[in-house]
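## Example pair
The file below holds two records. Each record gives the amino-acid sequence first, followed by its structure token line.
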Amino acid sequence: DVYKRQSITSLGGETVTQGLPGLSKNVLNGTLFYSLDNFETRLNVRYRSDFVSEQVAINEQVVNFDAETVVDFQTSYQFTDSFGMLLQVNNLTDEPTQSYFGNENITGTTQYFGRQVYLGFTYSH
């Protein structure tokens, strides 16, 4: 079991049991892929359960990051032997990254990094 828990005693004497910083207990990845002749498409989903951060908070607060599910999409088409197109959208659903202190009611940050769209063409002769 790679996921381990640790007990930390603060300078104030309080002991907290938590996961190791940066490690989620559950990480899942799934991909659906379809290809036909010159056409390809792919949908990828990544899930990561909540985890403890290495960030330092005020007054010995523990910083946690909430679970997140990120969806990516990619499609391509080869028009000819020498000309093709690729469309890629990362973070399709604009999933935020959220942190909190100790419990989910004490919000730290909510960050939206947005969708990233890439459109590319290839040409060779």
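Second record, same layout:
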Amino acid sequence: MRIITIDFNYVKLPGNVANATTFSFPVVYEDIVLEIEDLFHGEEKLLGMVIEAAKKLEKKGVRAIVGACGYFNHFQEQVRDAVAVPVYLSSVLQIPLIKMGLKPDQKIAVLVADGEGASVDFFAKANASISDCIVKEIGSLDSFAPIRYNKPFLDNGRLKSDLVAVVQDLQANHPEIGVILLECSDLPPYAAALHRETGLPVFDFTTLINWVHSAVVRREFYGYM
């Protein structure tokens, strides 16, 4: 599996998409250097470097390309059209499928790193409707600052507690929430805690990447009859 990542130096825990031990199969990363605020807002000047990264991976013989930031969704269609292999750049691409499994009045709690960038247009680029979601920015949490602002020290326990508190508050105020989706590729390390404390299914980048891998690297079935 080949993953386009952002060249940041903060700690990447197991579960983070940019930590290769997160996956049970080999992954190769293609780093790009950018300002994260530009990616949040889908600045057009980033398009060329994202396409270039995808083409580099394609030349290495990849079967599929994925991203390591939900905001790569701003460029999903352009990158898809620029290469010959399947492209799944963002965790939010799962929203249409998730919604199909929910009752009509249920919604998806989407935790995002930047609320302003998670606009109606942003979701539409994933063939998703923001009206199906309850969007919550977690980028302003003090415990998330090392990730948001690329700082060296991360208090993992504090961030986990803060995220659980955020989601429990959402659940209490929005009983229509049926599923949680973590936009940010740094949040999968906390998915199990969120699932355990809320009882809700939790989708994230790892559910997307494992799904894609299971389709492009098929295995024979063995068992008993």
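Notes on the second record: The two ends are 33 Å apart (CA to CA). Residues 91-204 form a domain with the Rossmann fold fold (CATH 3.40.50).
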